[in-house]
Amino acid sequence: MLSIKSLDEIVIMKEAGKILSLIRKELLKFLKVGISTFDLDMIAFDLMKKNGVISAFKGYQGFGGYICISVNEAVVHGLPSKTRILKLGDIVTLDIGIKHKGYCVDSAWTYSLGSVSNKIKQFIENTKKSLFLGIEQVKPGNKISDISRVIGKFGNKNNYGIMEIFSGHGIGKKSHEEPYIFNFDFVL
Q1: In a structure prediction context, what are the per-residue pLDDT tens digits for the chain, which is 188 residues long?
Q2: How far is CA 35 from CA 20, 68, 82, 164, 171, in A?
Q3: For 113-138, what is the HEC assignment?
Q4: Cβ atoms of 112 and 119 closer than 8 Å
Q5: Handedness of CA 145, 148, 154, 157 (dihedral sign)
Q6: How many distinct structural domains can be found in the chain?
Q7: Which residues are CB-neighbours of 59 under 8 A, at least 6 positions away?
Q8: Is 104:24 a contact under the CB 8 Å cutoff?
Q9: In this structure, are residues 69 and 80 in contact, taking their beta carbons and an 8 Å threshold?
């Protein structure tokens, strides 16, 4: 069931979003060649403690990390590991979710370590573009499928494979709430 947030809830979630942004910016200082994804996860945990929030991911459906760190071929929800050492040319997605005053927020951002091919740079830029194309569809009179359609159309136009088993999602008291926003055109 879709949960419409009150103004008070929105204020709390905005606070949480600002805290998450600070954590991400601090964590980026450590995103370097030679660090393990486990060490990045522990740094994220320390930053969460320092900012008075907890991980929305740790223990969620058995997940063992405080954040998700997906490297190269890992599509989403990469589990931190002591043996996964970041190297030059890696593509790293940091997916950070926190709980603040009973409400969850999360965001995922993708970075490259050092120089990568133009094809990879374009891929990272295009995924960001597809997000903003979807956001442009969030307006009165539009449906969730309008968001999905524009994202899927952009992905197909650029010859990207669409992972149909994953979706964007709402947030609130839970990490995953309605609406679920798929990355492909569908009809309900």
Answers
A1: 788 999 999 999 999 999 999 999 999 999 999 999 999 999 999 999 999 999 999 988 889 999 999 999 988 889 999 999 999 999 999 999 999 999 999 999 999 999 999 999 999 999 999 999 999 999 999 999 999 999 999 999 999 888 888 888 999 999 989 999 988 877 65
A2: 21, 15, 9, 32, 31
A3: CCCCCHHHHHHHHHHHHHHHHHHHCC
A4: no
A5: negative
A6: 2
A7: none
A8: no
A9: yes
CATH assignment of the domain containing 10 = 3.90.230.10
Residue 97: strand, helix, or coil: strand
pTM: 0.90
Cα separation of 108 and 97, whole Å?
9
How far is 152 from 164, CA to CA, in rounded Å? 10
Domain ranges, residue 62: 1-115
Whether 65 and 95 share a structural domain: yes
Rounded distance between C-alpha atoms, residue 113 and residue 168, angstroms: 25
Domain final position from 96, 115, 134: 115
